[in-house]
From TrEMBL:
<feature type="binding site">
    <location>
        <position position="137"/>
    </location>
    <ligand>
        <name>S-adenosyl-L-methionine</name>
    </ligand>
</feature>
<comment type="function">
    <text>Specifically methylates the N7 position of a guanine in 16S rRNA.</text>
</comment>
<protein>
    <recommendedName>
        <fullName>Ribosomal RNA small subunit methyltransferase G</fullName>
        <ecNumber>2.1.1.-</ecNumber>
    </recommendedName>
</protein>
<keyword id="KW-0698">rRNA processing</keyword>
<dbReference type="GO" id="GO:0008168">
    <property type="term" value="F:methyltransferase activity"/>
</dbReference>
<keyword id="KW-0963">Cytoplasm</keyword>
<dbReference type="GO" id="GO:0032259">
    <property type="term" value="P:methylation"/>
</dbReference>
<dbReference type="Pfam" id="PF02527">
    <property type="entry name" value="GidB"/>
</dbReference>
<keyword id="KW-0808">Transferase</keyword>
<feature type="binding site">
    <location>
        <position position="71"/>
    </location>
    <ligand>
        <name>S-adenosyl-L-methionine</name>
    </ligand>
</feature>
<feature type="binding site">
    <location>
        <begin position="122"/>
        <end position="123"/>
    </location>
    <ligand>
        <name>S-adenosyl-L-methionine</name>
    </ligand>
</feature>
<dbReference type="InterPro" id="IPR003682">
    <property type="entry name" value="rRNA_ssu_MeTfrase_G"/>
</dbReference>
<comment type="similarity">
    <text>Belongs to the methyltransferase superfamily. RNA methyltransferase RsmG family.</text>
</comment>
<keyword id="KW-0489">Methyltransferase</keyword>
<dbReference type="InterPro" id="IPR029063">
    <property type="entry name" value="SAM-dependent_MTases_sf"/>
</dbReference>
<keyword id="KW-0949">S-adenosyl-L-methionine</keyword>
<feature type="binding site">
    <location>
        <position position="76"/>
    </location>
    <ligand>
        <name>S-adenosyl-L-methionine</name>
    </ligand>
</feature>
Length: 208
C-alpha cells in the first residue's frame, strides 16, 4: 500500500507548480515499484518521507545545464529532479535493462522532455558532452564513486551526491580519490532540517 503523501504542504512548496506530476510519479512507483523489482517491499509505505522529499531537496542546488544522474534505479533522484526542474536537462545513466525500461516509460508517460535515459555504467558512459553536474544516490561509497564520476564532469562541474549518516567516514576513506580527481571545495551539506521527516546529507565538490 503506497504511503499517503507525507507533509503535503511541504511537498507542494518544494515542487511548486510541478506537484501534480510528482504525485503522479509517486503513485505509479508506489503501485508498481515492488512488482517491477525497483523498490523493496517496505518502501511504498514510506515513499514520500524517505525518498521523494529527500530527493527534491537537491533541486535548488542544480543549475541550468546538463545534469547526469548515475545509477538512477527507480528514478531517485533523477526523475524526481527532472520533474522539479524542467529548466535543467537530465541524462539518467543506469545499466540494468528493467530499470532503464521503467525510466524511459515514466519519462514518456510524464511528458518529461528534459530527461533522456542511457543504458550504461558510469565508467562506460557513451555520450560525448561533459556534464555540468553529476548526481548519485545509494550507488557506492565515495572512494568508488568519485573515480567513475569525476571524468564525466566538465572542468568547473560539480559532483552532488546524496549520502547517508556515515558520510564523514566515507570522506576520510576517500582522501586519495579526492586528491587524484583534483576535487576542490569539498563539503558536506545537510538539507531539510526542520522541514522534512528525514534530512538529506549531500557531498558536494567541484572538478578542476
Ligand atoms: C541501490 S540502487 C539505487 C538506485 C537509486 N539511485 C535510489 O537511490 O533508489 C543502485 C543503482 O546503481 C546502479 N549502478 C550500479 N553500478 C553502477 C555504475 N557503475 N554505473 C551506473 N549505475 C550503476 C544499479 O544498477 C542500481 O540501479
Amino acid at each position: 500500500m503506497a504511503e499517503v503523501e507525507a507533509e503535503p504542504a511541504v511537498a507542494a512548496s518544494l515542487f511548486g507548480e510541478r506537484i501534480e506530476v510528482a504525485r503522479d510519479f509517486a503513485r505509479e512507483l508506489g503501485e508498481r515499484g515492488e512488482e517491477l523489482g525497483l523498490i523493496g517491499p517496505l518502501e511504498p509505505a514510506r515513499l514520500w518521507s524517505r525518498h521523494i522529499l529527500n530527493c527534491v531537496l537537491l533541486a535548488p542546488l542544480l543549475r541550468p545545464g546538463v545534469v547526469g544522474d548515475i545509477g538512477s534505479g527507480a528514478g531517485l533522484p533523477g526523475l524526481v529532479l527532472g520533474i522539479a526542474r524542467p529548466d535543467v536537462d537530465f541524462v539518467l545513466v543506469e545499466p540494468m535493462e528493467r530499470r532503464v525500461d521503467w525510466l524511459r516509460s515514466e519519462t514518456a508517460r510524464l511528458g518529461l522532455g528534459n530527461v533522456r535515459v542511457e543504458r550504461a555504467r558510469a565508467e562506460d558512459a557513451p555520450w560525448v558532452e561533459r556534464l555540468d553536474q553529476v548526481t548519485a544516490r545509494a550507488v557506492s561509497s565515495l572512494s568508488k564513486l568519485i573515480p567513475i564520476t569525476a571524468p564525466l564532469a566538465k572542468p568547473g562541474g560539480e559532483l552532488v551526491f546524496m549520502k547517508g549518516e556515515r558520510v564523514g567516514d566515507e570522506l576520510v576513506a576517500a582522501a586519495k580519490q579526492i586528491r587524484a580527481a583534483r576535487l576542490r571545495g569539498v563539503e558536506v551539506i545537510v538539507l531539510g532540517e526542520g522541514i522534512v521527516p528525514e534530512v538529506t546529507r549531500v557531498f558536494r565538490a567541484t572538478v578542476d
